[in-house]
Structures
1.
Amino acid sequence: MERVRVGVLGLGTMGRHYVKIYSEHPLSEVVAVSAPRQEQVDKICKSYSVAGYTEYTRMLERKDLDAVVVATPDDCHFEPARDALESGRHVLVEKPFTTLTSEADELIRVAGRVGKKIQVAFNHRWLPSYHQAKVAIAAGEIGVPLAGYARKNDTIYVSTEHINWAGKTTSAWFLSSHDIDLVRWWLASEPVEARAWGRMEVLAARGILTYDVIQAQVKFASGAFVTFESAWVYPNTFPSTVDSFIEVIGSKGHLHFDRKCESIEISTERKFSYPKVFLNNEIFGRMRGAFPSCLEDFLYAILNDTVPRVSGFDGRQVTAVLEAIHQSLGTGESVRIDMPPADLA
């Protein structure tokens, strides 16, 4: 059986998940990893018996590498993704694809020139309920989508302890990117305008200069408008790390998704919680769920020479929305979202 030889760039929480999932999958083999910190590299190399590098460019010099996962912080995706493509490797990029639309455009053009694939890891598309939403909307079951609301809010643990680079990104890049991808996919319509508001108080007082909460309203070419809310200052007493809710209102019905509770509640003497099990959960010794399925489909796209389920263009459109949102936060005005260049669509 042919196997895809994978290198993982970035060994934070998500990077470690990539290594574990691809190491266990019968269609892939992790041959190398890279991260700036030697202790991170050493730990993974010892656990998985793979080669390790503190400079990813050295990893790209290997001959036994078919694909590269870019799992670096939000603002550090472009250069390693470009270099991996230029070295002749397929690339799977963590969300958001890039933090500049111009960079996304360049990556798509490079991939086309070298004949390699890009997939963006918007893994929520693989959640059964969200996929069913796509089917239902496409079938006209709720009529014409008119408006929507998407909330993805984290506890302050995420922005102050879980990651150490919150000051280099925002809650919208980190959280709303998933929701923007889902809504654009469901509506089958391109974004045309954005207006955003934000507050910067709680985290700034702790020396983390980023927004506590952002609300943005995005209008789509179909006429639908959707509010995207992201925050990461919920108190840590909240019983779930993330509070996630999406609503779509149609001319003949509506859709609601409440993912705060994923079918299980646990009460102990220490706390009450809603364990997150749908995206990624270890069952019988292997990782299962929407996230592993997303990673698996990238392998199938390579082995079967098919278009990835979430393409570089999909990632580019999410970046275009988020770039407009942050421009609006800076100017206080609505920002037009231009249609993509003809050679990218």
Note: Residues 4-123+286-311 form a domain with the Rossmann fold fold (CATH 3.40.50.720).
2.
Amino acid sequence: MKSNTRNDIQEDKIAAIGIGAMIVFIALILVAAVAAAVIIQTAEKLQQNAQTTGDDTADNMAGKLLVQQGFVATGGNGGSPTAMTPGEAYMFFVRLAPGSEPAPINEITFQFFCDNGVREGTIGDPPGAGLASGAVALMDVVDPTNAAQLLDSTTGIMQPSTGYVMWIDADGGQVGAANLGLNDCSPNSGDSKVEMYVHVGNGGTTFATLDIGTTTSGSLVI
């Protein structure tokens, strides 16, 4: 009887050890599963953040307007619209940044900041032909001598890798549309420096400082 009792006790100890090992093993599996889930979730979140950041950076860098040169407007000379007089308007040579998508000009807005206040509006204001005396901002292909190429404010679309001429009337005395500020940041405003921002729809923003040394037609400001 004593021998049998000892064997039973020994067998019970072996069974207990087996159950304990199984519990530890299951616990390790559960911990590993939880850790794997956390790692996978973290990796997915980091990937999404990186992709969002990359998309936003691409939109802001590729979807912006490059201002290559800026001048005091020539007011009818060299194919410029007669409404864009030297005392009131600027003329810029621009193109979309590499990698940009085509941009409707009615989604491109501008802002001038000067000592007299803020002048702002949309390229192509007011809607319509654009050559009327009330025009505020116009855009043409890089050859301004061909008036037929003037982009229509409602249907005109800037294409990548194509150069354009952009005229902006910065004189607050001329009201082309209801959303325009009325402050004067024109070459005749008396300011030697004017800050300009150009926003392209959901794309990027371009900043430039206009250095106004003279109001003579065709004078360089950028």
Note: Residues 1-61 form one domain.
3.
Amino acid sequence: MIDFHFWPTPNGWKVAILLEELGTPYNLIPVNIGKGDQFKPAFQAISPNGRMPAIVDHDVTGAPVTVFESGAIMFYLARKTGRFMSSDPVLEKETLEWLFWQTGNQGPMAGQLSHFVNYAPGDHPYALERYRNEYDRCAGVLERRLEGRDWIVGDDYSIADMICWPWILIAKPLSASLEDFPNVTRWRKAVKERPAVQRGVDLGKEFRRDEAPDEEQRKILFGQNARHIAEQTRRG
């Protein structure tokens, strides 16, 4: 059994989709990021960066294995199960390139766009333009990659597709458009039609709240600095 520490966000959906595609039994443990669950010592013992998703794999010999960071989790599960990542060294290398690209480029840029669209008080035209352009740049990278191919790596759907897809799914709520990216639009639709993907995105939807975060939640989500970390360490 796997303990899956999760909250319904694009980063959480990545691993939720993979677990549903694998059909792996898991125990869902909500990490309410608006209430600060990610900063509790018990969770930070699993995820030192204080971010979900994270997993604890109990189906191992010896002590349970903890894994944090979405890309590392997906690589770990794909390698362990032998599914959704080719055993061919070159294709495995390409899969890792796209996992690193997503976590180092697409994810952070889309996340910053989401922050200024959904959370930051006041008007921030420069920041919106900056991160919308970066979102489009990353969509363009995927557009070129998907020219003449169905999936990001090789001939098969893989964890490379799963990790890149959630931030593309929500382009419209992020005030971005896929109109200029027909290959990405086609690929987005193909992934969305998979039943396991739909189950992954629906996971924990009862946790969601439509209202904007209040000031206290903003402090929890975005007010962390070195002093806060030091205080949490002392309390832990």
Note: The beta strands are 2-6, 26-30, 54-57, 65-68.
4.
Amino acid sequence: MQVIENISGVRESISAFKSEGESVGFVPTMGALHKGHISLMRRAKEENDRVVCSIFVNPTQFNNPNDLKNYPRTIEEDSLMLEKEGCDLIFFPSEKEIYPVKDTVIYDLGMLDKTMEGLHRPGHFNGVAMVVKKLFEIIQPHKAYFGEKDYQQLLIISHITKFYNLGIDIVACPTLREPDGLAMSSRNQLLSPSERDIAHVIYDILTGLKEKAGKVSVCSLMDCAEAELKKYPEFKKEYIEIADATTLEAVNNWNNKNIRVFAAIYLGKVRLIDNIKLF
């Protein structure tokens, strides 16, 4: 397994793969890898001759400087995990390598970044679009793999890939969960033992909403969510939204049959997100 820190070295290695007629799958990450990331790696390995993984904690997508500072960084453990899974190349660039000069591009993401994560984290998705476009242009993979836990991000990446004609197949992969239902996330490492014991409640609430969806009004379903959350003073809701799974526009009836429920909840100081399909 190669570990390369500079763009020129990565391009040289990938060019060598492609010169042999080999397909390249790409899994971009910010490190602190868990089984969810590994599931993306395994899917990429199944569908491609070579797999490239990037590890880069992207500063332009963080609104809160403390969040950036506290984000877990575990490069040694990550490298061992990736090598065990048969990763061919890790791209591990410095901030200066990705941003030799300040990038001030503003991306037109339509309405996709005007709600939920985009509303509560201004500029976040512009930072995501910025780094993913750069990584795509460096790696130039045939396929790139993203988890549905970050569903809004997935739609935005698909949007910029099509808008800029990048010629990359974006592969959506199901959210991987802990045995109790908690969506796997690097941020889970920041939960205290007592917080971790109740973190699964977020998923429990979402699955409870799924069971009632279509049987009561959307408004009544939202009231159910609020009532369940109030049982746990440890949780602080940022949002719970029921929205069209393609446009992310909020829905107020069940006429649409392509609907998901999305949540962002603080548990202590840790912000957890999740979503599931209702229809």
Note: The chain has two domains: 2-173, 186-274.
